[in-house]
From TrEMBL:
Transmembrane stretches, start-end: none
Name of this protein: Transposase
InterPro entries, per database record: Homeodomain-like_sf, Transposase_8
One GO BP: DNA transposition
Region (Disordered): 55-79
Domain of life: Bacteria
Organism (species): Brevibacillus formosus
UniProt GO molecular function: DNA binding; transposase activity
Length: 98
């Protein structure tokens, strides 16, 4: 089985970042104290330095803006669908007569 992904709230992440930036602790020390991986602390610090508190908020499952992601398909209007199906039927009839 794979690892269970834990999520942390912004306050916990801020505490880890403060221990690193303000208290001068290393990634390893902060990670041991809080029971997380050093790479996680490093990522949080980088996000905090780049974006501030918004960098520490959960981003998974949120759209980044309009037009992002898979485009939605517009259903065919009934008239276009009828014309397409009639053309398809005509072609099939022609093929059956050969």
């Amino acid at each position: 089985m794979g690892k269970i992904r834990r999520t942390f709230d912004a306050a916990f992440k801020k505490k880890a970042v403060d221990l690193y930036l303000r208290d001068g602790m290393g990634y390893e020390t902060v990670a041991k104290e809080l029971g997380i991986e050093p790479s996680v602390v490093r990522r949080w610090v980088e996000h905090y330095q780049a974006e501030g508190m918004t960098g520490l908020e959960e981003k998974r499952g949120k759209a980044k803006g309009p037009g992002i992601g898979r485009p939605r398909t517009n259903p065919e209007d009934p008239e276009t669908k009828i014309k397409r199906l009639e053309a398809e039927n005509a072609l099939l009839k022609k093929l059956l007569q050969m």
